[in-house]
Design brief:
The chain is an alpha/beta fold and 348 residues long. Helices cover 40% and strands 18% of the residues. Helix 7 packs parallel to helix 13.
């Protein structure tokens, strides 16, 4: 019996020894994100080394799914920090009280246009514009001028040229729907969509299908030369071209009120047991080191004006001066009704 007790004590003593061998003060920080989160390994390692911490990333689905998980677990949070809620879901996150307020020092450098929460519970990290993209060669060869307004897409010369995403299943699809609501208003956007349907718009479920299968400008296989995508897409066509090219084969429409700006936020989850580390992580996400790494990792752009963009973006990126706007409060209040009305009008 005594030998058996000794044997049982061995693994316990071993585990205790391992625990004692853990570097003193070393901690762990859990960051919940959407599935599109990506960052360079050396950037993360730098933060971990400087703060004697291991960062664990919990990818929790698309933005809506991740937010649902954060809300359902708010009394016993799954992470310390949540990154990835955007302005289409912001009001819901704030109403549910999942975030703690944090007045990060770097916020003073961030333009006010990105700060949509006066209480600083959700802090802006990046932005990206959903815009119309077009195949330059196709339009030129067919003598068609690039569209300069949303109304242009309802004209006969653009019949059968446009492919968009279903807003009920696609983030850029929802953003384009919001652009039409912001521009035409609640009383006019459904008529606009009826006009698009009459002009043979194609609707697919996701961005990948729209851009890589139906659009002619990226793969060259699709039949449609105009697609809803991002203002960064031409720059990425240039950067990731299989063989070097002098200019992107696509371009973006940045006329006033034709794009919708997505802003992504980060916040410290209520109930986090690592408040100090969570604050350091947010400071890090707003620092030039993190902000400069984002564009080539997540195809989004820094809100910190001190961050420097890659030369390819400086040369090939066009940003809209005026984007269509719908407040986060209106989106939260009306999103489901707008989607239902759109579905009944466009798909049935």
């Amino acid at each position: 019996m005594k030998s058996r007790i000794i044997l049982l004590l061995v693994p316990i003593l071993f585990l205790n020894a391992c625990a004692q061998a853990t570097p003193e003060g070393h901690k762990s920080l859990t960051v919940m994100t959407h599935d599109s989160f990506a960052i360079s390994e050396e950037v993360i390692t730098g933060f971990e080394t400087e703060n004697n911490v291991t960062v664990q990333f919990l990818k929790a689905g698309d933005t809506g799914t991740a937010l649902n998980k954060a809300i359902l677990s708010k009394d016993n949070p799954l992470a310390d920090v949540f990154y990835g809620v955007d302005n289409t879901f912001l009001s819901r996150a704030l109403d549910e009280g999942i975030f703690q307020s944090y007045n990060a020092p770097t916020l003073a450098r961030v333009p006010d246009d990105y700060k949509l929460d006066p209480s600083n519970r959700a802090l802006p990290v990046d932005f990206g514009d959903v815009c119309l993209n077009y195949d330059k060669a196709f339009l030129e060869e067919n003598g068609i001028a690039p569209p300069q307004s949303l109304e242009d897409l309802t004209q006969p010369e653009y019949q059968g040229l446009l492919v968009v995403q279903n807003p009920a299943t696609s983030s850029p699809g929802l953003s384009f729907l919001l652009a039409t609501i912001g521009y035409f208003g609640e009383d006019g956007y459904l008529q606009y969509w009826q006009d698009l349907v009459a002009n043979d718009v194609q609707i697919v479920n996701d961005w990948e299908t729209a851009y890589y299968t139906e659009f002619s400008g990226s793969s060259g296989k699709g039949p449609r030369p105009i697609v809803v995508s991002y203002d960064s897409s031409p720059a990425f066509e240039f950067i990731y071209a299989e063989t070097p090219i002098e200019e992107p084969p696509t371009a973006v429409v940045v006329s006033d009120n034709t794009c919708f700006r997505q802003i992504e936020f980060v916040g410290i989850l209520t109930g986090s047991r690592n408040r100090d580390l969570a604050e350091k992580w947010i400071d890090f996400m707003l620092s030039p080191t993190f902000q400069e790494d984002m564009p080539l990792q997540m195809f989004v752009f820094p809100v910190n004006p001190d961050a420097t963009l890659d030369e390819a973006f400086l040369e090939h990126l066009e940003l809209p001066a005026v984007t269509a706007f719908v407040s986060p409060e209106d989106i939260a209040l009306n999103r489901e009704q707008w989607l239902q009305d759109w579905t009944e009008t466009v798909l049935r």
